[in-house]
Amino acid sequence: MVGIGLIQTLSEGVGVALVIPFFYSVGQGGFGESFREGAPEFIVRIVDAAPFLQNPSHLVLAILGLLLLKNVLSYLGGVAYGWLDAWMGHELRLRVVERLLVVDLSVLESSEIGKLDHLVETHTYEVMEAVHEVVGALTTIVALSVFTTILWLISPPLTLLVGFCFAMISILLRWVGRGADVISARGADAEEELSQRTFELLRGMPLVRAFGAEEEERQRYEQASRRTVALNLRFDRRSEAIEPLTEVLVAGILIGILFTAIATPAALPSIIAFVLILYRTYPHVLALDNARLSLVACGPAVDRVNALFAPETKIASDHGTEPFTPIDSGIRFDDVRYRYGSSGPWVLNGVSFQIDAGSTTALVGPSGAGKSTVVRLLIRYAEPTSGRILVDDTPIDQIELESLRSGVALVSQESHVFDRSILENIEYGRIGASEAEIREAARRSHALEFIETLPDGIHTRVGDAGARLSGGQRQRIALARAILRKPQVLVLDEATSALDATSERIVQDSLALLGSDCTVLIIAHRLSTIRAADKIVVLDRGRVVEAGEASALLANGGLFARLWELQTWAHPSGTVRTPR
Ligand code: ATP
After folding, report:
1. What is the mean pLDDT of residues 464-491?
2. DSSP states of 350-399 as a string?
3. Less Cβ crowding at N or C end of the chain, within 10 Å?
4. Stretch 341-347: mean pLDDT, rounded?
């Protein structure tokens, strides 16, 4: 790219400089003594080396040829730039997404989703702009060097004078653009914020409508949008001043040089060539100053992308080498403590319990007790702050992550579905499964009956985040996904909370069919969901307060019995029934 720029500038510079012999060829005493004394040395040498240039038509042809070459190279350079931009942009976006796929979940959880979206979509584009500017600046520096050399060869004193004036202009422009970096950083924050607002607004639209909060949301959005407008305008006031200011100052310099030319008619051809080349030099000076400001504007985006790739950005750790083999005895939490961040409160505070192989263990407890956090640690979305989780006798972090995850299926309350067909969403459980297997999993999760009523059946697309499905339908798809996986460990975190009682019962029977090889951990607020569990572990404020079979816990009269009582009523016969 820089090479193309060099040839381009040389052909342009020499092409314009050939105006000098042209003047001599059509007047100014031809190529005699006055030419040798008045024309710059390098022009005299060029004409001596190529005598055919003493003919005005040949000179015109040479000038046109060089200008044609310059413009062909300019076109080729533009196409090459476009190619580089498109592919480097693609590579960078891909690297960012690859990085997002491996960083620790906590890194993503500490950022709002709208800001991450902005990172992938906008910041990568801005980083490409920065690369573009750097390459452009290099080409500009080459062009400036070539033009300055030609100017120097035509007239050293004038070149020094012009160089001094340009240096002064550059200092002035820096002063005009002062503070642009701070404004740009604040602008980047504001744009990220706006992006997050947009994302939140679109996501929360049903809530906004339900609570009639359209006007409040409009105002909040307007505020965020106005902030970006104000910062962009402040930045533009500085950057847009540069071009006109430079033009006026350069025009002053050119007029000064023309006055010199009038005072010394003998040097007129050289001075006209000098002015013409100087006129072509000025856009490059301008481009260099603009590049500096554009780089300032891209700075925050470069910082954001850099931060993602910084060595200290936590990567989901996988030091495990052991395969996840069938479990013999069970999974044991051994004095596990965990907190979010480095100084938050203990969310799990010395949790110890055993999930027996092939059995169903239920985790119950009040909201915020730490149940979902146990699941996060079990599927290694996070590592315990202290204590150990053992699968049989192997610490869970020694098990290869991919092998562990392929043996575990999680169905959580959110039941995320992608905007793909139902078939593809279920196939996510085991990529490559046949349609018959997928349909069977859908049948067992009680999903097939609603799937068959959809216009395209199992091939129906479900809309963004499953927008065209009910909560219960999304859960059935998530359950089908888990059933298809045939996992060794099935984790159900409020996985059937959106199902009606009959559906839940049928789904649970289906899950039981996963076989006695499957170890199940189930979390549910609805205690009827866990009635069939072999063991119940009761968590309260990050501690295990009781564990055992339901009947024993009920007899104990502890927290479980109290929770049970809250969800049941005593039948006149003295038996206890669930409300459903
Ligand atoms: P629920 O039954 O309401 O789902 P839970 O028993 O599953 O609750 P957890 O989701 O494990 O409880 O949360 C335990 C505690 O950890 C809560 O006090 C919660 O505020 C806190 N917590 C959960 N996630 C985070 C997070 N990402 N960052 C900081 N604190 C968190």
Report:
1. 83
2. EEEEEEETTSEEEEE-STTSSHHHHHHHHTTSS--SEEEEEETTEEGGGB
3. C
4. 83
pLDDT at residue 579, rounded to an integer = 37
Helical pair 156-176 and 124-154, crossing angle rounded to 10 deg = 150
Output the CA 373–ligand 1 centroid distance in Å.
6
Ligand 1 pocket test target in 337, 371, 376 with most atoms within 8 Å of CB? 371
| Total count of domains within the chain | 3
The answer, yes or no, to whether residue 575 has pLDDT greater than 60, is no
Backbone angles phi, psi at 107, to 5 degrees: -65, -40
- Those residues with Cβ within 8 angstroms of residue 158's Cβ, 6 or more apart along the chain or in another chain: 151, 257, 260, 271, 274
pTM for this prediction: 0.66
Residue 519's nearest CA partner among 259, 328, 306, 273 is: 328
Q: Which two tokens stand for residue 428?
A: 């996510």
Whose C-alpha lies nearest to ligand 1, atom 20? 368
Distance (Å, whole) CA 395 – CA 331:
10
What is the extent of the structural domain holding 416?
411-486
Q: How far apart are the first and last CA of the chain?
A: 74
Dist. CA 428–CA 441, nearest whole Å: 12
Q: Are 489 and 327 in contact (CB under 8 A)?
A: yes
Give yes or no for residue 179 having a pLDDT over 80: no
> Is 4 among the domain residues?
no
In this structure, the residues whose C-beta lies within 6 A of any atom of ligand 1 are 109, 340, 344, 347, 365, 367-373
Tokens of 176: 């005009």
pLDDT of residue 318: 67
Model confidence pLDDT, tens digit, residues 52-83: 877 888 888 888 898 899 889 888 888 888 88
Same domain, residue pair 399 and 498: yes
Over residues 397-426, mean pLDDT: 85
Residue with tokens 């989901």: 316
CATH number at 548 reads 3.40.50.300
Tell me: do 102 and 118 sit in the same domain: yes
